[in-house]
C-alpha cells in the first residue's frame, strides 16, 4: 500500500486551495454580475434637493393626504405634466423573495404594480369603485366602464383594449386574460374569493370575455377582489419564462425588469414602447421616473443611514422611533417630508368562546375587556405611533363611523370597578388564562397581564410565531385569550377576516369559537351592497360588544418618508407607493 | 491512509441520510401550516386542503419521507421553495458561493492574523503587549458582531463615506462584512494559540532545541507551533463547518443575500424544502470539516497519522488471521 507522504499532502492541499480560490472568485464575480449600480451613484436624487420646510410631522397629515392621493388614481393632469427624474431608490424591509405575480396575496412590495397591470384598479383608497386599466372604458356601461353586467344576472363581460402589449412585444388577447386567471386559481391565491369564484371564463372574441359566476356577486368587494387582485400576462411569455416569473418578469406595465437579486435588489427601467397613449393613462400607469430601484434592507438602522447618505430616497416601512432626524428640527428635515396615516391593520383581543373554555362565560369576558385599557396600551407601547380603536377597525376605512368613538363601552374607556363587578358574577375561580401573542408582541402580553392582574385574573403569556399561532388557535383547549392583527378593504371584510364562520373547517363557528349564528348573519348582511349601511354596521358593533366577542386594541400609524422633491404621492389601494405615478419637481 | 479517507467518506453518506431523515421528521412535527402561511387567515378549509394537496403535504409520513429521500439522494432535487417559487438548488447555486466566500475569507483572516498574534503574545508573555492584547481579545470575543457591524456602518459609510453599507457588488461591499465577521475569530484564535504555545514553551524538546543552538525562529515555528496546532486546528475546523450558518447576522445587517438569511426565512415561513436542504448542506459541511480537521491532525502530528495507518494494517492482519 502506498503511504501518504508530506509531498502528496502538499500537492493535495495545493489543488484544494486552487479550488477554493476559484470558488472565491466565483462568489465575488457572481455578486458583481447581479448587482446594480454602485451605491455612490446618487443620480438625480441627491442633487434635486428643494429647500422646503418640513410640513409632514408625525401625527399630522401633510400636503399629501392619503385620501387625496387615492383620488389621484383617476386622470390627473398634474401627474402627467410632472418632471421626469432619472432614478428613485425605494426601501423594502422584505418582499423581494420572488417576482411571481400569482402569489402577491401576502406580498409586501408594490413593485409588481409597475411591472404588471390588472383589468381594473380600485378607485380611491378603500370603498370606492373600479376604474378600467386594461379594459376599454368606452365599452361597457357598468361602473366606470370597461364591463357589462345586467342586475340579477351571473354574467360579467369585460372589454379589453385592442393594443395591449407586454415588455417583450407579445400582444395581449382574451385568451391571455383567461390564462392569467386560470394560473391565479391554480396557484391557490384565490382564498377569500370562496363562492365568488367564477365557474367559467368564456372567451367571446379576441378582446371580450364573460365571467360566469355561481351567483350574482353582490357582496362588498367581491368583484374587485377578482378583477383588481389578478395581474394579466401573456401565456407565451409565461411558458417561455425559465422561472415562471419567479426571478424574471414580463408584464404590460410601464416598466420592465432590469435586474433582480433575490432578497436584495430589483431594478425597473421604463419601457419606451409602452402600449397606452399618455392621454389615456391612469395615474398609476404613468412613468415619471426612468429607473426605479427597490432595495431590501431588513435592518432599520441601516435604512436610516442609507436615507441620510442618499443611497435610498423613500421608505414607508420605518417606525416613528427612527424618524427623529427627518422630523422638524432634525438634521435631514429639509431634505425629507413625512406623511403619517392610521393604517388599515388593527390589533384585536379575543376570548375563546368555546363552551368548554372558561372564557365561554360572558361575564368573565366582559370583566377582561373592561379591565384592559387600550388607550393605556398605546401610551405604554408608543403613543406617537399608535392609536386606540373604538372597535375592530380604524378611521382609515371609508365606512368607519366616528360615532362609534362616542359609545360608552369597554372599547372606549376602562373601568376596573365594572370589571370587578362582572368578575364577581362570573365563574372565575383563580385559574390561569393563557394568552397567545405574536413572538414580537411579548411586551403587549405583559401589559395585558398586568392590567388583568389588577382585578385578580392570572395570565400565562405564550409568544408564538405566526405559523405556530395559526395551528394552536385551531385547538380550543390550548388558549383562552388571543391577540390578533387584522386588515381588510372595508369594515365588513376586516371583521370577516377574524370572525367569519367560513374561516373554520366546520363552518359553524368563528375562529375564536363563537357559535352565535345571529352574529354571523349580521356580518353577512353588512357585507352585501344593500346591507352595507351605517345602521347595520353600528348594530353589528353593538351586538359584538354586548356579547363581548372581541375588543379593538389599537392601530398603528404608518409613516411615509419621501424626498422633498416629490410633490404628490401616488398609492394603489393596497397602500403601496406607485412611484411612476408620483409628481416630482426636479 | 486512503482507505481511512474512503471509509470516512462512506460514513458521510450514512450521516447525510440520517440527518435528512431526522430533519424531515422534525419539520413534519413542528407546528405551523405552510398552506396557512401562503394563503392567509381568510382561506377556507377546502382551499387550505387543496393547497396542501398541491404541495404533497396530505400524504402519509412514510410516503412523504420516501419521496423526499428519493428526490434528494437519487435525483439530487431539493424541491421548490414555497416562498421563493424557485428550485432550492438554483438558490443555493447563487447564494452558496457568496456565503462560503464570506465565511472562508473570515476564517482565513482569523488564522493569518490570529495565529501569529497568539504566538507573539506567548513569546512575550506578561509584557505590556501581552497584557494589552488580552484585554483586546476579551473585547473582541465579547463584542456582538451585529453591534460592531452597525458601528462600522456609521463610521465608514455615514461619517467617512468610504464604503457602501449594504448589498453586494464591488469589493468595497465585502470589507465591512468581513471585518465584522472575523474580529471575534481573530481574538479567539489568538487566545487559543497563546494558550497552546505557552503549554509547549516549557517542554523538554524545546529546551533541547535551544541547547542545540537552533535559531529562535526555528524553535518557535518548527518545534513549538506544530505541537501547539492541534487544538487550534480543531477550533478552525469547527468554524469551517459553521461558515454557512454563522454568517446569518452579518447577512441580515448588511443585506447580504446568502444562505444564512435563506435558511432563516425558510424557518419562519415553514418553507420545508428550504429548511431541509439548508440543514442537510450544513451537516455535510460539518462532516467535511471534521474529515479535513482529522486529516490535518495527521499531517501535523505523525503519531496521529500512524494511528490511522496502523489501524488499517491491524484490521488487515485480523482479517487474514
Task: Walk me through what this model shows.
- The complex is a heterodimer of chains A (586) and B (321).
- With 586 residues, chain A is α+β, with helices and mostly antiparallel strands.
- Helix content of chain A is 28%, strand content 20%.
- Chain A folds into 3 domains: 59-116 and 253-335 and 564-586, Periplasmic binding protein-like II (D-Maltodextrin-Binding Protein, domain 2); 117-234, Alpha-Beta Complex (Dipeptide-binding Protein, domain 1); 342-558, Dipeptide-binding Protein, domain 3 (Roll), CATH 3.10.105.
- Chain A has a 6-stranded mixed β-sheet with strand order 14-18-13-17-15-16, with helices on both faces.
- Chain B is mainly α and 321 residues long.
- Helix content of chain B is 79%, strand content 0%.
- Chain B has helices at 2-29, 34-39, 45-55, 61-74, 88-123, 128-142, 145-159, 172-200, 204-211, 216-241, 248-253, 259-268, 272-300, 302-320.
- Chain B is flat and about 85 Å long.
Q: What do we call the CATH topology of the largest domain in chain B?
A: MetI-like fold
Report the portion of residues of chain B in β strands: under 5%
Please tally the β strands of chain A and state the result: 20
Describe the sheet with the most strands of chain A. 6 strands, mixed
Helical region count of chain A? 17
Instruction: Using a beta-carbon cutoff below 8 angstroms, give the protein chain pair with the largest interface and the number of residues from each chain.
Output: A-B, 72 and 72 residues
How many domains comprise the coordinates of chain B?
A: 2
N/C terminus separation of chain B: 22 Å
Shape of chain B: flat
Please state the structural category of chain B.
Answer: mainly alpha
CATH class of the largest domain in chain B: Mainly Alpha
CATH architecture of the largest domain in chain B: Orthogonal Bundle
Q: How large, in whole angstroms, is the Cα Rg of chain B?
A: 25 Å
Helix content of chain A: 25-40%
Amino acid at each position: 500500500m502506498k503511504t501518504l507522504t508530506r509531498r502528496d499532502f502538499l500537492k493535495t492541499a495545493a489543488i484544494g486551495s486552487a479550488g477554493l480560490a476559484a470558488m472565491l472568485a466565483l462568489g465575488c464575480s457572481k455578486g458583481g454580475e447581479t448587482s446594480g449600480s454602485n451605491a455612490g451613484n446618487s443620480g438625480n436624487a441627491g442633487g434635486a434637493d428643494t429647500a422646503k420646510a418640513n410640513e409632514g410631522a408625525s401625527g399630522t397629515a401633510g400636503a399629501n393626504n392619503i385620501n387625496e392621493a387615492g383620488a389621484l388614481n383617476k386622470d390627473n393632469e398634474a401627474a402627467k405634466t410632472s418632471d421626469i427624474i432619472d432614478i428613485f431608490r425605494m426601501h423594502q424591509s422584505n418582499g423581494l423573495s420572488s417576482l411571481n405575480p400569482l402569489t402577491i396575496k401576502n406580498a409586501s412590495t408594490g413593485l409588481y404594480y409597475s411591472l404588471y397591470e390588472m383589468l381594473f384598479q380600485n378607485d380611491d383608497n378603500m370603498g370606492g369603485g373600479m376604474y378600467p386599466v386594461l379594459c376599454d372604458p368606452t365599452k361597457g356601461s357598468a361602473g366606470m366602464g370597461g364591463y357589462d353586467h345586467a342586475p340579477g344576472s351571473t354574467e360579467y363581460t369585460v372589454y379589453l383594449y385592442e393594443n395591449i402589449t407586454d415588455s417583450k412585444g407579445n400582444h395581449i388577447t382574451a385568451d391571455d386574460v383567461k390564462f392569467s386567471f386560470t394560473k391565479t386559481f391554480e396557484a391557490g391565491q384565490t382564498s377569500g374569493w370562496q363562492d365568488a369564484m367564477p365557474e367559467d371564463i368564456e372567451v367571446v372574441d379576441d378582446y371580450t370575455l364573460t365571467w360566469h359566476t355561481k351567483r350574482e356577486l353582490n357582496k362588498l368587494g367581491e368583484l374587485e377582489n377578482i378583477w383588481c387582485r389578478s395581474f394579466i400576462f401573456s401565456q407565451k411569455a409565461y411558458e417561455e419564462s425559465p422561472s415562471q416569473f419567479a426571478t424574471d418578469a414580463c408584464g404590460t406595465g410601464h416598466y420592465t425588469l432590469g435586474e433582480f437579486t433575490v432578497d436584495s435588489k430589483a431594478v425597473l427601467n421604463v419601457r419606451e414602447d409602452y402600449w397606452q397613449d399618455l392621454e389615456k393613462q391612469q395615474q398609476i400607469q404613468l412613468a415619471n421616473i426612468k429607473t426605479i430601484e427597490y432595495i431590501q434592507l431588513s435592518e432599520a438602522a441601516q435604512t436610516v443611514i442609507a436615507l441620510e447618505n442618499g443611497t435610498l430616497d423613500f421608505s414607508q416601512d420605518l417606525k416613528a422611533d427612527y424618524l427623529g432626524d427627518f422630523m422638524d428640527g432634525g438634521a435631514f428635515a429639509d431634505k425629507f417630508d413625512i406623511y403619517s396615516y392610521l393604517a388599515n391593520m388593527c390589533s384585536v383581543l379575543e376570548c375563546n368562546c368555546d363552551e368548554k373554555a372558561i372564557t365561554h362565560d360572558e361575564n368573565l369576558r366582559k370583566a377582561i375587556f373592561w379591565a384592559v385599557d387600550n388607550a393605556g396600551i398605546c401610551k405604554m407601547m408608543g403613543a406617537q405611533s399608535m392609536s386606540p380603536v373604538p372597535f375592530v377597525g380604524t378611521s382609515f376605512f371609508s365606512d368607519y363611523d366616528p360615532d362609534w368613538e362616542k359609545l360608552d363601552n369597554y372599547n372606549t374607556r376602562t373601568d376596573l370597578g365594572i370589571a370587578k363587578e362582572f368578575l364577581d358574577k362570573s365563574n372565575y375561580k383563580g385559574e390561569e388564562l393563557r394568552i397567545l401573542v405574536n413572538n414580537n408582541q411579548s411586551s403587549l402580553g405583559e401589559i395585558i397581564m398586568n392590567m388583568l392582574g389588577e382585578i385578580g385574573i392570572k395570565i400565562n403569556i405564550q409568544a408564538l410565531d405566526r405559523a405556530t399561532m395559526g395551528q394552536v388557535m385551531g385547538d380550543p383547549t390550548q388558549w383562552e385569550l388571543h391577540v390578533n392583527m387584522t386588515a381588510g378593504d372595508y369594515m365588513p371584510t376586516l371583521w370577516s377576516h377574524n370572525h367569519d364562520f367560513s374561516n373554520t373547517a366546520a363552518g359553524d363557528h368563528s375562529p375564536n369559537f363563537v357559535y352565535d349564528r345571529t352574529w354571523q348573519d349580521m356580518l353577512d348582511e353588512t357585507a352585501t351592497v344593500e346591507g352595507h349601511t351605517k345602521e347595520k354596521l353600528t348594530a353589528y358593533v353593538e351586538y359584538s360588544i354586548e356579547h363581548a366577542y372581541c375588543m379593538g386594541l389599537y392601530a398603528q400609524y404608518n409613516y411615509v418618508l419621501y424626498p422633498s422633491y416629490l410633490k404628490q404621492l401616488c398609492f394603489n389601494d393596497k397602500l403601496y407607493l406607485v412611484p411612476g405615478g408620483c409628481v416630482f419637481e426636479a | 491512509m486512503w482507505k481511512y479517507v474512503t471509509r470516512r467518506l462512506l460514513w458521510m453518506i450514512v450521516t447525510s441520510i440520517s440527518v435528512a431523515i431526522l430533519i424531515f421528521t422534525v419539520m413534519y412535527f413542528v407546528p405551523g401550516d405552510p398552506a396557512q402561511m401562503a394563503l392567509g387567515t381568510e382561506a377556507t378549509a377546502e382551499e387550505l386542503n387543496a393547497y396542501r394537496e398541491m404541495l404533497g403535504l396530505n400524504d402519509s409520513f412514510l410516503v412523504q419521507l420516501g419521496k423526499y429521500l428519493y428526490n434528494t439522494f437519487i435525483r439530487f432535487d431539493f424541491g421548490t421553495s414555497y416562498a421563493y417559487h424557485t428550485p432550492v438548488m438554483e438558490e443555493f447555486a447563487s447564494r452558496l458561493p457568496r456565503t462560503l466566500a464570506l465565511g472562508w475569507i473570515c476564517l482565513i483572516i482569523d488564522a493569518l492574523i490570529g495565529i501569529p498574534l497568539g504566538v507573539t503574545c506567548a513569546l512575550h508573555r506578561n509584557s505590556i503587549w501581552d497584557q494589552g492584547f488580552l484585554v483586546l481579545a476579551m473585547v473582541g470575543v465579547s463584542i456582538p458582531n451585529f453591534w460592531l457591524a452597525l458601528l462600522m456602518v456609521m463610521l465608514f459609510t455615514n461619517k467617512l463615506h468610504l464604503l457602501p453599507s449594504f448589498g453586494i457588488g464591488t469589493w468595497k461591499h465585502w470589507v465591512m462584512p468581513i471585518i465584522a465577521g472575523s474580529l471575534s475569530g481573530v481574538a479567539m484564535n489568538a487566545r487559543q494559540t497563546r494558550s497552546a504555545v505557552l503549554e509547549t514553551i516549557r517542554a523538554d524538546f524545546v529546551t533541547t532545541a535551544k541547547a542545540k543552538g537552533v535559531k529562535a525562529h526555528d524553535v518557535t515555528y518548527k518545534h513549538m507551533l506544530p505541537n501547539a496546532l492541534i487544538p487550534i486546528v480543531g477550533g478552525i475546523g469547527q468554524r469551517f463547518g459553521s461558515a454557512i450558518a454563522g454568517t446569518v447576522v452579518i447577512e441580515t445587517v448588511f443585506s447580504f443575500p446568502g444562505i444564512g438569511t435563506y435558511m432563516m426565512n425558510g424557518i419562519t415561513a415553514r418553507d420545508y424544502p428550504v429548511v431541509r436542504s439548508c440543514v442537510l448542506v450544513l451537516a455535510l459541511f460539518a462532516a467535511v470539516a471534521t474529515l479535513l480537521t482529522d486529516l490535518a491532525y495527521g499531517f501535523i502530528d505523525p503519531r496521529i497519522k500512524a494511528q490511522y495507518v496502523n489501524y488499517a494494517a491491524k484490521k488487515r492482519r485480523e482479517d487474514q488471521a
